[in-house]
Amino acid sequence: xxxxxxxxxxxxxxxxxxxxxxxxxxxxxxxxxxxxxxxxxxxxxxxxxxxxxxxxxxxxxxxxxxxxxxxxxxxxxxxxxxxxxxxxxxxxxxxxxxxxxxxxxxxxxxxxxxxxxxxxxxxxxxxxxxxxxxxxxxxxxxxxxxxxxxxxxxxxxxxxxxxxxxxxxxxxxxxxxxxxxxxxxxxxxxxxxxxxxxxxxxxxxxxxxxxxxxxxxxxxxxxxxxxxxxxxxxxxxxxxxxxxxxxxxxxxxxxxxxxxxxxxx
Length: 265
Known about the structure:
By secondary structure, the chain is mostly helical. The chain folds into three domains: 20-102, Orthogonal Bundle (Arc Repressor Mutant, subunit A), CATH 1.10.10; 122-158, no CATH class; 170-259, no CATH class. It has helices at 20-28, 33-46, 58-65, 69-81, 155-168, 172-182, 194-206, 213-224, 246-250, 252-259, and strands at 85-87, 95-97, 122-123, 130-131, 140-142, 148-150. The strands form three sheets. A two-stranded antiparallel ribbon has the order 1-2. A two-stranded antiparallel ribbon has the order 3-4. The protein has a two-stranded antiparallel sheet with strand order 5-6. Mean pLDDT is 78; it is low at 123-129 and 142-153.
């Protein structure tokens, strides 16, 4: 029995063609599993119907990819930011797969695996008793009780401490400085109070991609490109134009909307 299934126009199941370059790029792309599933769902709803882009409800993608609706919106925002997909306007505008050459995917798994050199036990020339060598490079920490702890013998605790430190060390001042540099037309931040620190910390810890000042530079540049957020769009019924502030930009709901490109119609 052959494992090859012939595809015919009369095939009741149908099939979706995929450009070879796109196929190869998706295989190589350092996307998370859910990002890949959402990208494939968008491709299915566009290329599968011979269109470059289409209006696709997040709830429909959620059903196709078996992902929660709220997570789909966030993932779409990440794919837009990495330019894997594009949107032709606001949040309800058609979306499609971007040309592979336009992709700017975050490096998520670029750490090279290295084999750790295990020190060999020394052997005394005058005794048959083996003894461990002195290793100056041993990673040790001292507790508050002045007890020396070998981090290599407690890898889980050491790794957890490093991971938490990276996630917790939000560079509040550096982010505010970027805001002032790029969005000098918007209201200035004179005090980084506790509320602002907490909001920045929340956005910083939400996703690994957010823990990079390059992301925040791109985020503020996207704000600058929005006439609405910059106060250049006249308000309804002659009211004063809306103009974003630092607090507004780092609030959870607004942050997601800006990342997803809702204000770039």
